[in-house]
């Protein structure tokens, strides 16, 4: 086990299922398996649930009683931080830019923050990385003055390494589930900041898997995220003490849909959400996994994935955001205009 020496606290149900999808396989002409990270447990599953086992494992011995993080007001990361804080008897202070629900009652993940008992603070919209770090550090200092010990969960800090290690662990789990069967041609996964894809690709490379990892960029162009992925993988490999590193050829990045923007739901995405729902009973989140599914279907159509190939789709969760897009997803009507940017999730 690559990650066996890492501090870890158990919250989620592992291994997550690797599920055959016969009706989708038949429709697409491939042999599709879905890795159900959305069923990991904690609050409503997803990739953040698994990685928080390592993040909290690193923090628990240090007397931390408060978790501080910044993200969008539909963030899956913030929702799972709120959930894990509740599970551990900690406090969560969540910083979100602006009030994205325009005075209406909050929906989706933002509603769950409240139900889970997190303290939500609205900070100025449009902060750059330095501004985000400063806002988080301000909360940490404020906690210290009140005699509390806060940890900032930000990808620039240990959280970025823990997130990557979480998916090295997932890679090992997936590799074991695939052993004995036909070799997978490719593994499709969403790329936001890139820790999840970095960990998956690093783990599979380290294990000698023949599968091509295909990262589908959600909002940043490939040339921006590729060096980040290599950096995340290198930091994780260093902590794990393994010699494997990721290079340019180890991950295929597809960024056709990055330019439509974070959280923008277009008619081709609505179409693929309905396809997966109606042929597998699986509702993909509109922000991340709908784009991954779109890229997969398009790759099959253009021959990037050959007919009959065994393909793994890693469903990283994020379903609460669905409820924030009701006007575009309801009924059988053709979707109209793209969603407002403020419907963005994370
Ligand atoms: C955060 C998130 C991702 C992306 O993870 P990164 O490590 O930032 O690339 C993918 N899918 C869902 C549902 C997420 O919430």
UniProtKB/TrEMBL annotation:
The protein's required cofactors: pyridoxal 5'-phosphate
UniProt entry keywords in alphabetical sequence: Pyridoxal phosphate
Amino-acid biosynthesis keyword on record: no
Top-level taxonomic group: Bacteria
Residue ranges of every copy of the Tryptophan synthase beta chain-like PALP domain listed in the record: 14-317
Pfam family, one: PALP
Gene3D superfamilies: 3.40.50.1100
InterPro entries according to UniProt: ACCD_DCysDesulf, TrpB-like_PALP, TrpB-like_PALP_sf
Keyword set includes Iron: no
Family according to the record: Belongs to the ACC deaminase/D-cysteine desulfhydrase family.
Protein name per Swiss-Prot or TrEMBL: Pyridoxal-phosphate dependent enzyme
The organism of origin for this protein: Alsobacter ponti
